[in-house]
Structures are given as C-alpha cells and as structure tokens.
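Page 47, continued from p. 46.
Same chain as before, 432 aa.
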Amino acid sequence: MFTRKDIVVLGMMIFALFLGAGNIIFPPMEGFTAGTQWATASLGFVLTGVFMPFITLVVVAIVGRGEELTRDLPKWAEVVFLATLYLVIGSLFAMPRVTNVAYEMAWLPLNIAEDNSTNHLIFSLVFNIIGMLFMLRPNTIISTVGKFMTPALLVLLVVVAVNVMVSPLSDIVEPTKAYATNPAITSGLISGYQTMDVLAAIAFGGIVARALAVRNISSTSQVMKYTISAGLISVFLLAVLYFSLFYLGATSEKVAESATNGGQIFSRYVDALFGSGGTWIMSGIIILANLTTLVGVTSACADYFAKFHVRLSYSFWVIVFTALTTTVAQTGLTELLRITIPALLLIYPVAIMLVFLQIIRHKLPNIKFTYYFTLLATVSFSACDSLKNMDLLPQPIENSLNYLPLYADGMGWLIPAFVALGLSLILSPKTT
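Result:
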C-alpha cells in the first residue's frame, strides 16, 4: 500500500533530485535582467524549467527508464544522443556547475578561506570525493535528504522569500539585455533550458520507477498515478521557489552591481537580510542540496556507461566522472554558464521532441519514419540556434532564418519540428 506519507516522501525526493545548481543560480540573475517584466519572464521559466521536466518525468517513469525514449532510433543515433545527454547533465557541464555553485554560494560567503585557484581545487576535490563515497556505496542519501534536509532548505527559502516580499532591498528597474529587446516570456522560456531539468528528468524518471518497483508498484496506471501525485508536489515547490527568486533578483539592484551570476546575487541578498548567521545556515543546506544532485545524476550517468563493457564497471565510471567533474569545475562558474548554452540549444529541443513523440507513439502510422523525419528537422534547426549563439552560423543561412518565426528568440526549431511531424503523418506509409 502506497500511503499519502509515501507520496509526500517521494515528492520530496523528486524535489531534492531537481533542486540543484540551476534551480537557485539562474532565477536571481534572470529576475534582475528582466526587471519590471520579472513576473512574465518567470512564467516562461516555469514552463520549460518545471512543467516540461514534470511531463518528462512521468513519461519516463511509465516506460521504466530514459533509454526507452530512443528505442525507435538507429543504434548509433541512440548512443550519440544518450551519451551526449549524460555527459551534458553530468561531468562536462552540470556537475561541475553544481560543484562551483556549492563553492561560490556556500563556501566563499563564509569567508573562511581566500578565493584562489588552490582553494577552489581543494574544495572541488573534497566535495566530489564525498559524493563519490556515497555513490560507491549507494545508501539512503536521497531519501534522507528528501525527509530531512530538503524540508530544512524549504524553511530557509520560505524565510528568505517572505523577507524579500516584506522588505525588498531595491526598487525594480527596467529590463536589460535580451529582456529589453525580446518578449519576456520567450526569453524566460529559453533561460529555463539552463536548469537542464528536462534532460535530468530522463535520468530521474528511471529512479522514480525503481523506487516504485521496490514497493511492488509496476502497472502503468499505478506508476502514472503515484508519479503524477508525487511530481505535483515538486512542481508546486519549484514553481513557488522560482517566482520568489525572480522577484528577489528583480529587487536586487543594491547588491547586484558587479555580480556575474545569480549565485552571487542570491548570496549577497541573503547576507544583506540576515547577516552571517543566515549565511552559515544557507551554506550548509546548499552544500547538501547540491551534493544530493551530484550523487543522483552522476550515479545515473555511471549506470548508463557501465552497460557498454563488462570490465568497465559502475564503480570505474563513478571514479572517472568524479575526476572529470573536479577537473572541469576549475573552469569557474561564470565561464561554465557561458559555454553551456550552445550545448543546451542543440540537445534540449531533441529531448523535448522525444518526449512528445513518446506520448503520441501509439497513434503514429509509421513510427520509425515519423521519428527520423521529425528529429532530423529538429536537429537541423536546433544546430542553427546553437551555432548562432557561438557566432559561427554562416551569414547567408542566418539571413534566411531571420524570416522564421521565433528564430530571433532562440526557438527557431519549434515550428519546423512540428511541421515535419505533420508532414510525416501525411507522407509516411502505414505499417502493419
């Protein structure tokens, strides 16, 4: 019997898995940049940073594991996509980002040690080795955090949110950068990519499915019911968190000067509100929250790569990814955020379309044809968005794409992907 208490614990576990670096560092900076448009921008952010991951989580939990989303692709395409996905959410981008958020938001504000490359390396080593020890001996860290540390973090965030609402530090300024020229909601949609939570949900859906299987819950209807029930708890908490952090950023002009990322804005704001006491509490919980994400994601990555060769075991990949995360983390948070965007613009649309195709899969007249045709269009146009972000897109191609709706907003792939989907339904021969 799966009780209401079990649903709450599962919901808190899901929230704990998603509550990583991007959930805290992006909204303050986006809110500051959006200024008076913070509410509209936060709505766009929630659509891609909360609702899409929720749908992905439910779909993957139902099919049992993330790899099922790519079963209709050629083997080489399946391996390329999944390997890229796990490297992006793992040791090449997201996990070094998690390490650096813990360093910049939790360690540096304590003023215990000087901010230099040596101390950065030492912290990264210690943080990742602790995570590796949990991964090598899988225990109860995620359920423990779901039961105890996540509620403690929520209490802190509620206290911060209430104080921000009651006594904001600054007046809200006019929008700047992309928010000054583009619709706030589309800029928010794009910024929601940066949480990487749709990609993470492909890995976390399998974790939820296994957690339910342990309780002998495996039928499609039951898995859907309990995943939706528990997932909605995470949706509500994350949405409230994002709206609060957007407003924090929008009212942060007093502390945002010279800040290069949202983590710095958040830390300075908390310090201004509560002084050193609040900083100590925040630091401890931020470290544990990021440690939970590090363990959950890296273990999922190691589990996937361990399937390629019997001699390259799960433990081997845990050690490899720990070393790689520690190395890449030395790039620094601001630089990591800058180079992450092109990778996300390329892979995120593909992940979204794979989830959508899985939802309508049983209604497709020719599954393989529709998958190939739709994903080819998606990859082609998302690659253009990625190249444009890096200023590598040939000018003649960019001039042509400027006529495409949503291209200027970084979502040029959307309409071509669904046009290709529609054409595939008309052109594809029916299979028996």
